[in-house]
Every structure is written in structure tokens, then in C-alpha cells.
Design goal:
Order of helices and strands: EHEHEHEHHEHEHEEEHE
CATH topology: TIM Barrel
Structural class: alpha/beta
CATH superfamily: Glycoside hydrolase/deacetylase
CATH architecture: Alpha-Beta Barrel
Helix content: 25-40%
Distance between the termini: 12 Å
Strand order of the largest sheet: 1-2-3-4-5-6-9
Radius of gyration: 17 Å
Number of domains: 1
CATH class: Alpha Beta
Number of strands: 10
Oligomer: single chain
């Protein structure tokens, strides 16, 4: 049987502004990437999301991003490697503390938005993130775009790196994600997206926008929690997994 992790970006509501349907989505996934207050989320939302993840026995991960609440962390920022290291430490440490007082553990780290995409190509930025994760806890799993500079930086430091693929995004020929500024960046046809995901898991291949097949390592699949159709999509995805004999991974360290 093939094993796969199913992750979702959650806890991105802020104050009175509600994003996504976190509690319902948590019933279907195995890993939750919880916003740490920079691109989304706040102290109250972090506490509530951690409690819900614990309730549904979902692995908890920190989802650090750029300090860009207005842009939802999707705008690039020109920060030094030292600044990147500090902001990642700060955010992971915050969520780690929330986990501790709620009697649960932080399992993984997945950068958000522009920080994630820049680290996929920029080795200096990738090194800063990987070092921050390692310095806080070398047992943390690092979620990184499959084949990216961030994945390489994590592996060189001895971190367990989970190659991440995206159900609702298109890929360029070099394995990077198509920019959200492009009209073909997102996949809105759920059946087409599910077919692509199954192929990525079973064949370790995905078709790029230019029609070429690229090799890809699929350890964890991302579903975006801010998408209004997220709940419907994850239910369909899990049904497809059952038919394809694909099992949702429950742990990174014991299997």
C-alpha cells in the first residue's frame, strides 16, 4: 500500500476575519500547517487551531511567512539571511509554545507563500530557513517543494525532508510552481486535479505547463485551506485514495 501525507494550511483567520472551514477540513487531513501571526492568524486563532488539531489527532506544523498581513504573505520581500533566520525562529517558537501549553507537539515546519517560493530557488534564503528549523529542533520535519533548494538545504543539515506537491497548482518545466500572477497558476477542475495527484503519488511524475513530464517526489500533498472548495475537494481526494489503495500517513517517525 502506498503511503501519503495530506496537509492543509490552516489557522489563517485574523481577529473578526474568518478564512476557511478549519474544523471540518481537519477531519480529513493528516497534517495542519498553522499560521503563526505574520501572514495570517493571531494568538487566539493559533490556540484554537492547535486545540482542534489535537482533538482530531492531526499532526501540527508551523507555517511561518513574511510579515505581510495585507498581502497574505504572497508578496516578495527583500530581507537579509539573518532577518529570515530570525523571523522563522520567532514564528516557529511561538507555535511551539502554544503546542506545549496545550499538551501536544510540534511535528513539522512549512514556510508560507512568497517565503516558500523564494526559498525554492534562492539557496541563501533556503539555508537560513533550514538552519532555523535545525537549531530549534533537528527532529522537526521540513516540508519543501520537491526537488527545490529548500529541500536540498534541509537534507544537507540532516533534517527529515518531506517532498511536497500541490493538488491545485500548475508546474513549470523546472519543477517550480507557476506564479500566482499567471492566469494558469491554479487548477479549478477537482477531477483533473485528483487525477494529477494520483499520478504524482504512483508514478512520481507531473505534466508541466509546456506539456513535458517532470520527475517529482510526492511525500505530502498540499490542499489550500483558504479555498472555498477545500472541504469538498479533500473529501473527494480521500475517496479517490481509497479506490487507488493509497493510505493517509499518520506519522513521520514510526513508519
Amino acid at each position: 500500500m502506498t503511503m501519503i501525507d495530506l496537509n492543509c494550511d490552516l489557522g489563517e483567520s485574523f481577529g473578526v476575519f474568518k478564512i476557511g472551514n478549519d474544523e471540518e477540513v481537519l477531519k480529513y487531513i493528516s497534517s495542519a500547517n498553522i499560521a503563526c501571526g505574520f501572514h495570517g492568524g493571531d494568538h487566539n486563532v493559533m490556540f484554537e487551531t492547535v486545540k482542534l488539531a489535537k482533538k482530531y489527532r492531526v499532526q501540527i506544523g508551523a507555517h511561518p511567512g513574511f510579515p505581510d498581513l495585507a498581502g497574505f504573505g504572497r508578496r516578495e520581500m527583500n530581507l537579509s539571511p539573518r532577518e529570515i533566520y530570525h523571523l522563522v525562529i520567532y514564528q516557529i517558537g511561538t507555535l511551539k509554545a502554544v503546542c506545549k501549553v496545550n499538551g501536544t507537539n510540534l511535528v513539522h515546519v512549512k514556510p508560507h507563500g512568497a517565503l516558500y517560493n523564494m526559498a525554492a530557488k534562492n539557496r541563501g534564503l533556503a539555508d537560513s530557513i533550514a538552519q532555523a528549523v535545525f537549531d530549534l529542533n533537528p527532529q522537526l520535519v521540513l516540508f519543501a517543494l520537491a526537488g527545490s533548494e529548500l529541500a536540498k538545504a534541509g537534507e544537507e543539515r540532516g533534517l527529515l525532508v518531506a517532498g511536497e506537491v500541490f493538488a491545485d497548482r500548475t508546474y513549470q518545466h523546472d519543477g517550480t510552481l507557476t506564479s500566482r500572477q499567471e492566469p494558469n497558476a491554479m487548477i479549478h477542475d477537482s477531477e483533473f486535479a485528483i487525477t494529477r495527484v494520483v499520478r504524482m503519488i504512483k508514478e512520481r511524475k507531473v505534466e508541466a505547463v509546456d506539456g513535458t513530464d517532470i520527475e517529482i517526489q510526492a511525500d505530502t500533498i498540499c490542499v489550500h485551506g483558504d479555498d472555498p472548495q477545500a472541504l469538498e475537494f479533500v473529501t473527494k481526494l480521500k475517496q479517490a485514495f481509497l479506490q487507488e489503495n493509497i493510505q493517509i500517513r499518520k506519522s513521520w517517525r514510526t513508519e
